Amino acid sequence: MAKKRFQPKPKIKKGDTVVVIAGSHKYKGVKGKVLAVYPKKNRVLVEGVNIVKKHVKPTETQKGGIIEVEAPIHISNVMYWDEKIGAPTRIGRRVENGKIVRYSKKSGRTID
Questions:
Q1: What are the φ/ψ torsions at residue 30 (nearest 5 degrees)?
Q2: Do the domain assignments include residue 22?
Q3: Which domain holds residue 85?
């Protein structure tokens, strides 16, 4: 029986603004909002990034055809965008008032 690997908690959350730092030249440097985080797969769904065509069958409520949807990208290919300094930054965790909070490593301000 295989051992379970330790899965670190992702530092990016749903609703964060991120910038794509690696991957396709089409999306590199693009900022977008995180729509979903998939921690077991280490992937995030970013608004307007990694658009793929999907073939959909018609249902009673939906028309069929080819639609364009966002596909998840690896979490290592995005960085948190700090609005205060207007630049990408890494995220750290620290304890404030007995609670763990995220903070920007460049500006030092609390994110949550």
A1: -80, 135
A2: yes
A3: 17-104
Tell me the whole-structure pTM to 2 decimals. 0.84
**Burial letters 7-24, b for 16+ CB under 10 A, else e:** eeeeebeeebebbbeebe
- Number of separate domains in the chain: 1
b/e code 74-84 from CB counts within 10 Å (16+ = b)? ebebbbbbbee
CATH code for position 88: 2.30.30.30
Answer whether 74's CB lies under 8 Å from 16's CB.
no
Residue 53: is its pLDDT beyond 80?
Answer: yes
Residue 87 located in a structural domain = yes
**φ/ψ (deg, to 5) at 16:** -70, 150
pLDDT digits (tens, 9 = 90+) for 55-105: 999 999 989 999 999 999 999 999 999 999 999 999 999 999 999 999 999
